[in-house]
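batch_manifest entry 22 of 60
target: Exonuclease domain-containing protein
source organism: Sphingobacterium tabacisoli
requested by: lab member K.T.
priority: normal
notes from requester: please return tokens only, no post-processing; we will run our own comparison against the previous entry in this batch. if the run fails, retry once and flag.
--- input ---
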Amino acid sequence: MEYAIVDIETTGSYAGDNGITEIAIVIHNGEHVLEKFETLVNPGTTIPYHIQSLTGIDNEMVSNAPSFRNIAKTIYSLLHKRVFIAHNVNFDYSFINQELKKAGYDWKAPKLCTVRLSRKIFPNLASYSLGKLCQNLGITIHHRHRAMGDVEATVTLFEKLLKNDSDSIIDTTLKKTKEHRLPTHINQEDFLQLPETAGIYLFKNKSGNIIYVGKAVNIRKRVLSHFSGNNPSQKRQSFINDIHHIDFEESGTELMALLMECKMIKQHWPIHNQALKKFEPKFGLFEYEDQKGYKRLLVSPFNKQAKAIQYFERATEANQLLLELMNTYQLSPKLCSFYSIRPEQKAPIDYQNIPALEQYNAQVDQALDYVIALRNSFVIIDQGRNLDEKSYIYFKNDQLTAFGFIHVDNPTREFADMIAEKDKCLSNYYMNSLVLQYAERFPGKVHYESNKVNF
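--- output ---
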């Protein structure tokens, strides 16, 4: 058996929006190295400054380098019929698979991840990033964050894994095949490449259009569950018959998977996601102007036709805030309405003993300014899809504004500079609630500073 041990440098963390800037491949037979290959690659796009700082590869260095398409034949010949090995294997595999597909090569390979193997063969280490792992195992890395430097360190790591694999974990991993029964019209290779990590999965029809988006903490296991069971209903059979291809995007965390699922559904409205989850608020604090021009506050059930000052899950929370505003800003009980299951019949309002219109409306404005000032703004920093990145969620003025991934060595700490255009999103109440609940459960991951954030 021969192994292709691989490392790449890229313009970013996700294959769909980025390109390869350098690739190194070492062919190994389990005993010694057979062949080496390395080259810079012109990614066809600008290399972000923070990536240049990390790798030392700048735009000038790749300007005369071959495009991936020009070296695709060589890459394919090196990888064909060999086990694909990398540190955080899904990252390297996803980029190379995408580029080979663009160049017209249909390539799939069995994969081994030196992170996962290291966790099993060298358990209880503090970190399994390539740098820390090599430091703990006495492996020297020359030219860190360059493809050949990292791949040579990975080769040495793999040799140590082979030597210390007393329980045949590597063989078991390669031979491991999960029992699965997929309909014959579904691409089996699509299923075999699915990772056992958190993320979203995309079911596509024969034409490649997305017909369903789902989220999972274990993508492969969740996808398989769609085809198990004995539900013979016409609706389910129609759903399964429409699926011809399966794709995925890893998320790092379950929360990111939930947000990615919502965003993807809102972008594509797949026919089998009949509607975006309608987790709408139940109550709101509303403002309106009466016939005499007085600004009035009202707690009422959710109404999507009217925009609330603030939304609530429970009426008691909304009533409590309204009472606080009334007491603090001397708002008239005659012009404020609490929610009640049995609303009282109200007589016409007597405007006697109510401040003059301009003065009273100014008091209401002060109360609403107070509510706006209470709105949350923060960033959640969490684990990414691999050890070299972190996920971030930017929450501003009680609204999810953006979410995405950033390299751990990115020098950017300013909130605004962290946000890529593609990461911006239009949120809804469900997405906002998910973020707020998570922030409450994991306060250590929340950064409230107005300007900077630390990883």
